[in-house]
Amino acid sequence: MSFYDIYQEAKNIDFEQHWQSVTDNDILRILTKERLDAADYLTLLSPRAADFLEPMAQRAHRLTVQHFGHTMLLYTPMYLANHCANHCLYCSFSALNKLKRKKLSLAQVEEEAKAIAATGLKHILILTGESPAHSPVSYIADCVGVLKKYFDSISIEVYPLSTEEYAQLVAVGVDGLTIYQEVYDEEMYKHLHPRGPKRDYRYRLDAPERGCKAKMRTVNVGALLGLEDWRKEAFFTGLHADYLQNKYLDTEIGISVPRIRPNVGGFSPKVDVTDRHLVQIILAYRLFMPRAGIAVSTRERAELRNHLIKLGVTKMSAGVTTEVGGHSEKDSAEGTGQFEISDNRGVDEIKQMLLSQGYQPVFKDWQCIDGEMPGESV
């Protein structure tokens, strides 16, 4: 059994009937429960629950402080390459888009590492376009070999790999995996991915589980909000995270809530996901999964990110560029980015903002002991 079996069952739920039947008392009852089930989570995503954001926020805050304290883990992405073999309608990296293609040499990777390390960050997320030909696993492993000198935690956001390939990267120092399904609705997935290996819905859907099996320390999932009905997409994302958390107890499961940003292809979202919708999703996630990490990226503007801190978020990016080589070669890297970011603040600005809200900015919460592989118990 994999999550695909759960998805097949869940997609037949009469979502509209469920949400139309929700009453105020249903929501108030859920807010008093110690442990929420999937039906409760679905109820908290209902239009009726939008009237209860304040009590949801109060409980989400209490649960987050209980499990994470007043802390916020900071990280930044590093783009290694933007070559891509796929045609995704919503992504600048799509193979059909006219984009300046670039791939960093190992010397350039080291320059990027030095620039990021100078900000004090110890957690990094490395990304590539989805082109195994241009960014094979061996290339990613070589980059990790360079980055290990500067960072204590290295996560990847690349094309889906086999369990054996994930294990290869774990062996050289990768400890975290982020991979988004983009859209859980299977028919919409086919429409949005007309060409390329990414068209294989099932292989992508099972990638987070393969990462867990390969002993990734952290695995992060999510849907790109705006591609389909956000209530259903958030529900499937939560089910996916819950499935992984219950099955792989030694893996830290997290979720992200990315919204579509302007891109080279000019794709417009099918669904308008407002700030209030985003808040409702985050609160419902937190109440459903009190121990799960929740990441909010610089896709969101600074003012909104400031307000989301006390609503359940545990991880934020800082000092971000989506350009290949953008941390150290800003001029030459221009025009290679995946999407426009909204929050351009540097690491120190984010640090000071967190301190002003009584939160501790965390630059490092993990270190692999020499000779011990990430995910290997001691």
Task: Outline the secondary-structure elements.
Elements: H1 3-10, H2 15-21, H3 24-30, H4 38-44, H5 53-68, E1 71-79, H6 106-117, E2 123-127, H7 137-147, E3 153-157, H8 163-172, E4 176-178, H9 186-192, H10 201-205, H11 207-213, E5 218-222, H12 230-247, E6 252-256, H13 275-288, E7 293-296, H14 302-308, E8 315-317, H15 330-333, H16 347-356, E9 360-362
Parallel strand pairs: 1-2, 1-8, 1-9, 2-3, 3-4, 4-5, 5-6, 6-7, 7-8
Strand order of the largest sheet: 1-2-3-4-5-6-7-8
Instruction: Quote the beta fraction.
Output: 5-15%
Number of helices: 16
Helix share, percent? 25-40%
Element-by-element helix/strand order? HHHHHEHEHEHEHHHEHEHEHEHHE
3D shape: globular
Task: State the distance separating the first and last CA atoms.
Answer: 30 Å
Please count the beta strands (DSSP E, at least 2 residues each).
9
Mean of all residue-level pLDDT scores = 94
Q: How is this structure best summarized?
A:
The chain has 378 residues and is α/β, with parallel strands linked by helices. The protein has 16 helices and nine strands.
